[in-house]
Sequence to fold (962 residues):
Amino acid sequence: MIFRLFLLELRSIRSDGRLLALVAVALSILLLSVWIGAESQRVVTEGRTAAMETSRQQWESIDRLSAHGVGHYGSYVYKPNSPLSTLDSGVMPFTGKVVRVEAHVQNPPAHSDAASWSSLVRLGAFDAGTILAHLLPLILAFTAFSSVARDRETGLLRVLVAQGVPLRSVLWGKSLAYWFLSLLLVGALIIAHIALGQASGEPLTTDIKTRLMLFGASHSLHLLIVVLLSVWISARVSDSRSALMILMIAWLVTTVVLPRVTAELSSQIFPLRSQITFEDDMKEDRAKGLDGHNPRDERRDEVRQQVLEEYGVEEVRQLPVNIGGILMQKDEEYGNQVWDEHFGRRHDTVRKQIGVVQAISFLDPFLAARGLSMAFAGTDQFHDAQFQRQSENYRRDLIKALNDLDAKAGKREANGRWRREKIDYSEIADFQFEPQTVDFALKHRWPEIAALLTWLIASLALLHWGTRRIPIVGTGR
Amino acid sequence: MISTFLALIQFEYQRISRSTMRFVAICVFLFCGFYAITSGAHHVEIWKQSLVELESRDLEQRTEALGWFANGAVGPEDRDWINITQPRWADRYAAAHAAMVPEPLAALAIGLSDIRSSWAVVSATRGAQPFRTSDPSTLGNAEKLLAGNFDLVFVLAYLMPLLLLVLMFDVGSLERDLGMMRMVRTQTLSPRFWWLLRVSMPVFMVAALVLILCLIGGVRTGAIEATFDQWLSYCGISLGYTFLWGLLFAAVLSAGTGSSTAALWMVGLWIGFCVIVPAAVRQVVSSQMPTLYASETTSVLRAERYEILLGNIENYKGPFYAARPQLSPPVKTPARAIVSDMDRLVRQAAFMSEVEGVSQNLSESEVSREAAVARFGWINPAYVYQRALCVLSGTESVSYRQHRQVILDSVKERQEALIQAQWKMKPVDKETFESLFSHGPWMGYGQAPEKGTYSQLLVLAAAAFVATGAFSRIRKSRERKTGVV
Fold:
């Protein structure tokens, strides 16, 4: 029976030109977004390759600098785009793409897209994730708002129920029909993405396949929730105009108002300290350590004594190593503790802020869908933090390698002076980004998965058991 | 006519007050407006607090240095290599920042103020700061930035058209749904007047609500008192935007469809103008003019800077003296430390020229990107409206470009002051030291929006007006042919 009603509703949708036009528009927008996204991805990837080549060329042409000087000269690390960022750009436009890697300081990523755009950047992105999570629910609500109300107003519902068709089956048939439409859109999107990826020669790894599948599944679940609730409201409310208004206000509150209010709320509950306080506190803590450039530092003297004892000599000029490099590395290690403490506290606060949003996603399925969409596309805050962590690890390894070279690459001359050897810096490897697997996304986004499943169960329950007070006859009849 | 007018006002009042959903929609809109004003004010408070912290940091450092002057010392006792009578140390201790001070209206149009940094260090010897593009206090949580602002501009640009939609979608179309239109036409003196009044009533009502929110915002933020003209422009543009949407929806209603079709069309317009067009324009322009990886900037800040620092000083002296005809190389060879300081300044000046060049290129590429976006302005009203208010409030990209230029100018002024002091071959005295504090203006950047803003909105309004006429004609001809009203 449900299948028959499903087919009946599909036929009804097919005969309504307005609904077909809406679906066609949604499909065109989705496909267009994938195509433009793929084109942008290509340009950005080329840009990153060119930037990396330029930076590497500059690095390899270093000539007259000591190893420590090279530490100050530094390097640049360029953030790669996730292969699925064409589907959902997530936080990428708002986070820096370039990290300056240098001695003594941990720099945050800089040069974000948003920092060189006008306020247009505030008006949303044209990607599949946004269209599926923002627009498609509205389109579905607009197609489904009169699904039951129309049958009631025309008297069809009364006839169906009089013929023994359970009301529950009617709602199921209609819901499945609208969900089927959204599944077609999601399916077309994924096929288009794979086709474009294959055409441009991008590898389709198991991880990407899994991510794609989960991306599609999370959006499909969200859309199923939207459809179930829309059909139920259409059935529960006596006239279609009221149903339309309820659905529109619900859409507005859940996708436009609540996400912004939640973001504000999270930053008010767990505020981040201002940049100035953050910098001052770090500077103060940093000053407590041994300053590699301050010859009067007491801690510097302590380290010098330890090194002299380690090598069993009495004077620096007798050491077989350059003490400068050792002191610099000790200073770096102290600095790293300071960065870990302060940046760590900052990351913790951000995690708590995201935790608030995740908790509120139990009240708003859109928040859950958006979080999962970004996570499966590899473009959420957690994935971005991984880039920051890896670039900082690279910085630490690079500076340690340079300080070791500064300490050891050379020899002590007879007059006690340290003579530096010429160093080939091109042997030092460039930064290599290790992408996260899908498990990483699942590990950080389980609250959203739980929220979406809770909403799904609640919606199913509503459709199954919430039919008792649904009016069969319209008020006008 | 007057009795019709009064009767319609009474009817519209009853229509809204008896519809729970409409009443709820108005309340939600007003609540969102109040919340947006409070949220914007909170954001500006944090901004101001940052500037207070900045000021106290500068003051602390300057006071310490002035204390040395007062005690006849040149630096701290435990660091005898610091000598603030030398220009390079004077630069370090005469702490100054160029800061963007929030305009009162900034609370009503946050714009880019939570993305871009509103201050920068002014120093001739501590590297170029105009490229500080991120503020970790907000960039700490990019998901918050992604969610977007909740300021009054957002409420007016996004939510106001939806309120208008809720109040307007069944004006006339409900009568069609119920088959009452023929009766309405026979019972009114002028059906056109009836329709115009019915359509304009919700528009004026929403305009009044918009004005109330602007008024509350103006009082709450002190904009009415401090910058009345700008506040007035804010109200004027907001009302214009409200009437524009009224006109667009009137065009839909003039087609004479049923209420559900009218609602679909209105939502379509809203989705198109507030969601799809802005996002699509950004994506298209972004793919044509990508921001990429700032290779030019990073090259200047690293490779070219080191090339200057390690290069032959003689290569830079020529352009240095040519640009400053009032200076000449010292006749007698000064002490080695002074020569080193002078060389350092010569190199810094050469580096500064590179920074100016790359900053200029950066600004030009931003301007050309915005020009490309502006070409779609007449179909992108939400963005044009938002931009106009952000420009007024000093939180738009143009304000930040000016701010960046001010930072560059301040750094350059500081550099020239230090060069003058260095070439005098005398220690920096207290007065000269204090004069360095002035390098770092604190100012707001609110200004009148570009003229193109109004013309773009007017083009769309004219198109809506023409469409209203055309749809009305089509409806009449359809009615004549079919006889169905």
About this structure: Residues 69-105+116-148+291-443 of chain B form one domain. The longest helix of chain B spans residues 20-70. Residues 141 and 147 of chain B are 10 Å apart (CA to CA).
